[in-house]
Amino acid sequence: MKSKTQQRYNRIAGLYDVLEAPMEHMFSKWRRELLKETRGKTLEVGIGTGKNIKYYPPGVELTGIDFSEKMLDKARKRAGKHPGVKLILLDAENMDFDDNTFDTVVTSCVFCSVPHPVQGLKEIKRVCKNGGKILMLEHVRSQKKTVGKIMDFLNPLPLNIYGANINRRTYENLLKAGFNPGNIRVENVWSDIVKLIRITNS
Ligand SMILES: C[S@@+](CC[C@H](N)C(=O)[O-])C[C@H]1O[C@@H](n2cnc3c(N)ncnc32)[C@H](O)[C@@H]1O
Which of 7, 8, 140, 191 shows its CA 20 to 30 Å from the CA of 46? Predict the structure, then answer.
């Protein structure tokens, strides 16, 4: 049975890039910055409409997964210009990849949406090689008291339209998933809300 989040992304897929266009001006520079660090066998979790595909350096062997078939259809069109990209309909919370498979795992604006984020992060930890890199561009709940409360109050809006939460505590979820805080580097790129998170898996 499809989760509400899957249904919401299937519903919004046709309009997703248009709705996101105003934000993309800012996000594209962060995508470019982060993705130039990808190497080798790379997994992108929640690849969506495939906006990141054009930013991967040559030589990267990319597999993208998403659990929304409609978002993945859009990604397939983009991937057409980049031969070798593999796209699979798959739930990030239960991936059928072996342990220690990928040199790099990428997420961008995904852990706002994954229904059980700690489970998804545990799976990423499992499929990423020991010593591999996990690169994340994610928006999270602000730590600022009033801003955080406003985000909690407004959260049902994006959640019901898109399936995305604006008040996820992704750093805390990483710790719950078993990542070592000493291996996590967090860079705030827009206030304390949008972050580039770089992790060395261990
Ligand atoms: C906000 S979109 C971001 C898409 C893309 N990463 C980007 O940067 O534009 C979130 C995507 O994550 C996918 N997603 C959420 N939970 C997922 C899960 N458990 N497994 C696979 N994909 C998931 C959604 O279907 C959606 O395509």
Answer: 191
